[in-house]
Amino acid sequence: MMNKFYITTPIYYPSGKFHIGTAYTTILADVLARYHRQKGEDVYFLTGLDEHGQKIQIKSEEMGISPQEYVDGMASNAKELWKKLNITNNDFIRTTDKRHVDAVTKAFNILYENGDIYKGKYVGKYCVPCETFYTESQLVDGKCPECGREVKEVEEETYFFNMKKYEDRLKKFYEENPNFLVPLTKKNEIMNSFVNVGIEDLCISRTTFDWGIKVPVDPKHVVYVWLDALLNYITALGYLSEDDSLMKKYWPADIQIIGKDISRFHAIYWPIFLMALNLPLPKKLFVHDFIMMRDGKMSKSKGNVIYPDILADAYGVDAVRYTILKSLPYGQDGEFTPESFIEKYNTELCNDLGNLVNRTIAMINKYQNGVIYKSNCKTSFDDELNNYITNEIELYEKEIDNINIQNALGHILNIVSRTNKYIDETSPWVLYKEEKYEDLKSVMYNLYEAIRKISILFYPFIPTTSENIFNQLGVTNEQKNYDSLRYLPDLENNKVIEKGIPLFERLDANIEIDRLKELMKVNS
Ligand code: MSP
User: Fold this and answer.
1) How remote is the CA of residue 409 from the centroid of ligand 1, in Å?
2) What is the pLDDT of residues 15-45, one digit of tens each?
3) How many angstroms is it from 115 CA to the middle of ligand 1?
4) pLDDT at residue 502 greater than cutoff 70
5) What is the residue with the minimal CA distance to atom 19 of ligand 1?
6) Does the Cβ of 92 fall within 6 Å of ligand 1?
7) How confident is the model at residue 299, as a pLDDT?
8) Is the minimum distance from the CB of 262 to ligand 1 under 6 angstroms?
């Protein structure tokens, strides 16, 4: 039977236009979804919007429209953005969807009837942008420890969730599943700052505003936005609805991708909610770091915000996907600068990859009228090239399976460089001049084969470019399959297009760096 693969992104707050940091999580999830589909798995990929809560209510009031009108507009913007970035999500959940509201209401009732919820009073601090409760001791200089903004004093009647009841089970779960939360450094942070010091009960309702799902047992309360939001991962699959076939098929999630700022909610509260609902826990939680700008976090006031749609309009979608993904090392923050964007674009995409494809197509046309032949000869460099590629593919797979995207891309680039070197080593123009046509056939075959493999490997990251390469090469569908990296198809008589089309136009760094800086200022 086909393996299933359920992957989720966080659902985003539609409190503003999405910048490249938000896009990072979604693009990363899309890469993994595409990679697992390539491997023949039955993939279900979910993203969506977190539309309730005080932050959204305030935002819509500022704009003088109803919260529903506001989120409706933002939802169409978000869907359009993901379409533009070639995101292949199977569903788009909104927490205002009836299916979600109904299921959250039912889940609240279950938890209430189980005795996991009790009524109390909360006195403490609340950060509206992060929608998070804090105790005095958690604050840093009296401000939110996560975003550094002012917190509000709140005192309200609220329902609490009895987290403590599940503390031992959670600890045991982490002991028995040491690779659940990765990277391991992130797991250690969570264990040290929360699990090992004891977990506090959590407020799960609010009364000071009403933009949310009503608490079924006490409708002057709305469900706390994080309980509401976390449940999206199962309500989207039809949990507690009449048709829960997707739930049966896809839950538990195979990978949930989140940024480090929301790890506490996903590493502690979410597993506990699932335990309380008697559901299995996700198999893996992958936590990534942040894309930073040269002067720190992206913020409108600093004028350093980069939006992915504006970047895509100016330089193409794949340039955006590639450079954003390449900006973050595993387990660390990464930096995005206009200079690094142009450098990656010009060197890796345009020079290394683009020229390889273009040169090869030109040579196949010039020397062999565009046709690929098998040869009886081998040059002394052929085995070395092919062994190198086989080995790099293995290394690539290890890295992508560990979600080390920068390293995975590094192995594909190694193949690109090695193949460029092969052209220098074999000097096809000399073979042609010396009329060594059998050697030449072998070199063209190997080059063609290497580019075909490079294109298969690059597909999850830069799908439009890969398709473009496949078209220029004239490969069949079967020759695009991931399996054909190993079970090599016969490429004899394949024919490339008559005139290669450049994959990426070289950018003038001086002009484009200034243009990017201007785009950041104007749009912040
Ligand atoms: N609504 C919650 C998530 C609920 S999930 C049940 C939320 N939304 S968010 O819009 O604020 O953030 C969504 C994601 O974007 C998070 O994973 C966050 O880490 C990520 N990023 C926001 N800025 C980022 C960068 N600068 N770099 C990388 N990712 C960043 O939190």
Assistant:
1) 23
2) 999 999 999 999 999 999 999 999 999 999 9
3) 32
4) yes
5) 259
6) no
7) 74
8) yes
Q: Please identify, by atom number, the ligand 1 atom nearest to the C-alpha of residue 229.
A: 6
> Rounded to the nearest whole angstrom, what is the distance from the C-alpha of residue 18 to the centroid of ligand 1?
10
Dump pLDDT digits (tens) for 414-460.
999 999 999 999 999 999 999 999 999 999 999 999 999 999 999 99
Nearest-atom index, ligand 1, CA of 10: 5
Can you tell me the distance from the alpha carbon of 177 to that of 175, in angstroms, rounded to the nearest whole number?
Answer: 6
Whether ligand 1 lies within 6 angstroms of the CB of 24 is answered as yes
**In this predicted structure, what is the pLDDT of residue 523?**
62
The mean pLDDT value for 364-380 works out to 95
Cα separation, 152 vs 62, whole angstroms? 18
Both tokens of 147, joined, read 């975003």
**Which atom of ligand 1 lies closest to the CA of 13?**
10
Q: Is 12 in the pocket of ligand 1 (CB under 6 A)?
A: yes
Q: Is 261 in the pocket of ligand 1 (CB under 6 A)?
A: yes
Atom of ligand 1 nearest to the CA of 290: 27
Backbone angles phi, psi at 494, to 5 degrees: -60, 150
How far CA 210 is from CA of 224, 407, 520, in Å, comes to: 11, 46, 36
CA of 21 to the centre of ligand 1 (A): 8
Query: Whole-angstrom Cα distance, residue 322 to residue 326?
Result: 6
DSSP-derived letter for residue 498 is S
As beta bridge partners, residue 158 has 120
pLDDT digits (tens, 9 = 90+) for 171-197: 999 999 999 999 999 999 988 887 777
Spell out the domain ranges in the chain: 337-487
For the chain, the distance separating the N- and C-terminal CA atoms, rounded to the nearest angstrom, is 49
Q: List, for residues 203-224, the tens digit of each pLDDT value.
A: 999 998 899 999 999 999 999 9
Contact 293, 337 (CB under 8 A): yes
Whether 282 is in the pocket of ligand 1, judged by its Cβ within 6 Å, is no
- Which residue did the predictor score with more confidence, 523 or 205? 205
**What size, in residues, is the chain?**
524
User: H-type helices in 114-261, by residue range?
Assistant: 167-176, 184-190, 225-230, 232-235, 245-250
Per-residue three-class SS string for 284-337: CEEEECCEEECCECCCCCCCCCCCHHHHHHHHCHHHHHHHHHHHCCCCCCEECC
Distance from residue 12's CA to the centre of ligand 1 (Å): 6
Domain 337-487: which topology?
Isoleucyl-tRNA Synthetase; Domain 1 (1.10.730)
Q: Does the beta carbon of 259 sit less than 6 angstroms from any atom of ligand 1?
A: yes
